[in-house]
Write a structure and sequence with these properties.
Layout (H helix, E strand, L loop, with lengths): L2 E6 L17 E2 L2 E2 H10 L6 E5 L7 H4 L5 E4 L6 H11 L9 E4 L9 H11 L6 E6 L4 E4 L5 E4 L5 E10 H9 L10 H6 L6 E4 L12 H9 L5
Parallel strand pairs: 1-4, 1-6, 4-5, 7-11
Antiparallel strand pairs: 2-3, 6-10, 7-10, 8-9
Helix pairs in contact: 3-5
Bound molecules: cytidine-5'-monophosphate.
Function: Catalyzes the formation of 4-diphosphocytidyl-2-C-methyl-D-erythritol from CTP and 2-C-methyl-D-erythritol 4-phosphate (MEP).
GO biological process, one term: isopentenyl diphosphate biosynthetic process, methylerythritol 4-phosphate pathway
GO molecular function, one term: 2-C-methyl-D-erythritol 4-phosphate cytidylyltransferase activity
Amino acid sequence: PRYVALIPAAGVGARMRADGPKQYLPIAGKPMLRHTVEAFLSSDRIAHTYVVVSADDPLIDSVVPSGGVTVLRCGGATRMESILNGLQALRDTLRDDDHVLVHDAARPGLTAGLIERLIDAVGDDPAGGLLALKVVDTVKLRGAEGSVSTVPRDGLWLAQTPQMFRYRLLRDALAGARDPAAVTDDASAVEAMGFAPKLVEGHPRNLKVTLPDDIRIAEMYLAATDP
Ligand code: C5P
């Protein structure tokens, strides 16, 4: 089975308060999405990279390199819908047991080293797996009635991407999700089917660029060496 990357890049980046979609904002002299795509192109484990954008995206062709990348113009209204549309567009291209690494365009700090760490750690596990970070802060929960309590952080992880699953499992999990709004990552849909995806230690450099200041943090990590 092959390993392929699927990058949803059809968001509008509302929290970034920028002029255009955040995946095109310049980071260290290049559009964010180009850094993200190049991480996969630099790994010899990845057979092909697919990018999902909206049908009317005017910028994508100037951003993706010509070899090894295919653009799918089938973005949807939500992240989950964009991914599901991408998977459906690939039904005659991918086999059921191919591994799909879904990775947010907004995480440009990914490296070939982290991709390989995920692939090696998950191995043949049918449940797949994802990069994640152990929670280091003390976690508070504010209840609806104004109560505040402390959640034991033992066993708590923050999900990153890539999240890697067999093609068929991922498509079935997303297509069958009962509450699409609750599917904020791919693993949650797979967990709802009774699987326990493997949590693989990620790295802070793989942060999701969400707020304006995150750009400078991402640039600091991009200037640093591959973990
Ligand atoms: O906005 P957020 O950072 O949560 O988006 C995560 C990823 O999902 C981004 O790469 C974004 O482009 C993508 N996305 C998408 N289609 C949408 C919404 C978000 O591909 N409708």
